[in-house]
Hints:
The protein has 2 helices and 4 strands; from the N terminus they run E-H-E-E-H-E. By secondary structure, the chain is α+β, with helices and mostly antiparallel strands. It has one domain: Alpha-Beta Plaits (2-Layer Sandwich). The longest helix is centred in the last third of the chain and has 11 residues, at 42-52. The radius of gyration is 10 Å and the shape is globular. Residues 5, 10-16, 31-32, 54, 56, 58-59 line the site of iron/sulfur cluster (SF4).
Amino acid sequence: MRITVDADVCTGHGRCYALAPDVFAPDDEGHCVILVDSPTGDLEATARSAVANCPENALRIAD
Ligand code: SF4
């Protein structure tokens, strides 16, 4: 899997880095920064949950 974020769509709700802080982090304005774009193992499941919970649908997974 590979995760991408559409910076034009992300509004900085912070759900992604609240749910998966080892995969996502906030920038200075609270927008999503991807720390690990190809997580594996337990991190992959956590990342998929965070992607599914983005209210703006700003995160995408390419398998
Ligand atoms: S949950 Fe979605 S909108 Fe919120 S910071 Fe993460 S990518 Fe951006």
